[in-house]
Specification:
351 residues; elongated
Length: 351
């Protein structure tokens, strides 16, 4: 079956012609898929029934099944667990801000990076997502909420640069003016520091925002919480970030999850200042979301504020991420993990 939602406009045109249909039908089909966000071929009301039948027999829209929706008490955060066609499941988060609606999506089922504070990696990597499965997270949430998505962060389960080509195709499709036309400047890719991926993204010069999950100021401490640090040193990552800035002119963001007693001390703050002081960078401080399988706890607010003050007094732009969705297991991988564990406890299988 042809994964029709993953095709760009030129590829879709070639595909439609291969079905012995007129080329102009491709733009109509593309509009139904990527602008009207239909979930069934029968919803394409201006497409001939003969073509609809061909599409049903030869193509798939790769839609998802809503397994679970959780809404925060404040109503500004919604977490979704979506079932995929093969029985796996992924999670996505919708967040409402004053400046618009943001969606955090996954790029893989599970993750192989092994970060110690993250639930996504507890079961390891199952598989990469396809472009259509990444798109469908945005499309499904748009259908469910009835609201336009203005910002996308590829920061859910998975390491985006571990699925590089798919992620880039997703960016091109979601920003296409024939679809949702989301500005590339409003798309963020978050990586744990895959140096070749950072350089490849720089060379493509897509205009998107790059975010680095740093979480420590030296390699020794970073290796304790992020196994990827054994492959790429902080110096290598920062050199790649400088290359990204020099090539694209886009400032890099650094994510720093604050873990009580691990990386939230004054020495950590001053160490972070030392390695980032000569970079055009923004630091996003994130009090870590507790994961029951881990023994890490979040820093208290006094430590978080003190950490921020040290950074700002030394010239670093630093913000504290607004806490959203703690009451609905909004941290990466938590909802999927609890759902699958519940199936195991019941003796059921996936799907």
């Amino acid at each position: 079956m042809t994964d029709i939602k993953s095709l760009d406009r030129d590829e879709l045109k070639e595909y439609i012609i291969s079905l012995d249909e007129k080329a102009f039908r491709a733009s109509q089909v593309y509009d139904w898929i990527h602008k009207k966000l239909v979930s069934d071929f029968d919803e394409m009301t201006n497409i001939p029934k003969s073509l609809i039948e061909k599409l049903k027999n030869d193509a798939t829209l790769n839609t998802s099944k809503l397994i679970c929706e959780k809404i925060s008490q404040k109503g500004d955060t919604k977490k979704y667990l979506f079932g995929l066609s093969d029985g796996n499941c992924i999670e996505s988060v919708w967040m409402q801000y004053r400046h618009g609606n943001s969606v955090c999506i996954s790029s893989q089922v599970g993750c192989r990076m092994g970060c110690k504070f993250c639930a996504s990696t507890l079961g390891g990597l199952v598989r990469n997502l396809t472009p259509s499965e990444m798109l469908e997270q945005v499309y499904a949430i748009t259908r469910l909420t009835g609201e336009r998505v203005s910002n996308i962060v590829i920061m859910g389960s998975g390491e985006p640069f571990d699925n590089f080509e798919t992620v880039i195709r997703f960016v091109r499709l979601i920003s296409d003016d024939g679809g949702l036309n989301i500005s590339k400047r409003n798309i963020t890719i978050s990586t744990c520091g895959i140096v070749p991926g950072i350089k490849k993204l720089a060379d493509l010069n897509t205009g998107i925002t790059l975010a680095i999950s740093l979480h420590a100021y030296n390699d020794e401490k970073r290796k304790e919480i992020m196994p990827v640090a054994n492959a790429y040193s902080i110096k290598e990552i920062l050199d790649a970030c400088r290359y990204y800035f020099d090539t694209t002119g886009r400032r890099v963001s650094f994510e720093y999850s604050l873990i009580a007693g691990v990386n939230d001390g004054e020495e950590d703050a001053r160490g972070l200042v030392n390695i980032l002081k000569n970079m055009s960078a923004h630091v996003n401080l994130i009090p870590v979301n507790p994961v029951k399988e881990r023994n890490y706890t979040r820093s208290d607010i006094k430590n978080v504020l003190h950490f921020q003050q040290i950074l700002e007094k030394n010239g670093l732009n630093a913000t504290i991420r607004r806490e959203m969705g703690k009451d609905i297991e909004a941290a990466c991988g938590q909802l999927r993990r609890s759902y699958e564990q519940n199936l195991v406890d019941k003796g059921d299988t996936k799907g």
